[in-house]
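Q: I'm writing up a methods section and want to include an example of the input and output format. Could you take the sequence below and give the corresponding predicted structure tokens, formatted cleanly so I can copy it straight into the document?
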Amino acid sequence: MKKVNSVLASVVCAAIACSVFTSCKNGGDDNTQKAQDTVLSDAQRIDSLTTEKKNDIDFKFATLAANLPSPFDVVNDLYSYKAPYKADLLNPTANAEKYTTPFKKEINFGVYGIDLAYINFYGQNQEMLNYYNTIQKLAQDLNIASISEAYAERFKTNANNHDSVVVIVDNIFSATDAYLSKNDRYLVASHIIAGSIVEVNYLSLNLLKDIKRTPETEKLFVKVYNENLALYHLINLYEKYTDKDSKMLLENIKVYRKSYDEIIKSADDMNAENITKAAAMITTLRNKLI
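A: Here is the clean output for your methods example:
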């Protein structure tokens, strides 16, 4: 993969930020963190993953990455415009116990990562701990926990130095990129990204219902509209996958996109009535994933 997706990196960053908060340490070696059915290369979960298909997935992955806003930016904007904190919008951590397949774990690792970013901005410390523990358990099952843990101490030491944090985040991008490329974890990355994108859209639309559109908040409404455009690139990527889980997700995303496009054709259509309708539609899609 030529470029790591900003959503995936932000999810990893969220885990690191929470690692600092809880002062968590890595207590076991990598071998104890591997779930046997998820450490297999994605090639064993995709029909005919040829070199040509890998290259095509690489290109579409990079295209998706180039057109995604950072989830931290979106959540920060919602927080800045005083969107209320709504715990009932979060995916309950108790749900994690029922995620037994690699697909469900990957999707909801992305969902919980965005939830953790949201919780972090609003300073909900106990909830932050609960969601960190849930994410770390999923990360262990997916054999990616070491990526966040490797940078936790550096992040803690430099948390107040903006320039240093930027460098650390850049290192995380590179480390994640190298890991996914080396291990051909295309499906893992794509499922995490899909869960993240759906959750960002879900939170944004539901929180936007409580914000009045004014000249002062106009940029936020436009940003939330543009954020939804990532689904178009996600569809292009998922059309290359042939496993049953990805095909099912692709069809569900297409249904949502078609319904969304019928009521919101541009940022000008982001009025209270349409946002409420779109929020209900993304909730239906999300419920199928969580």
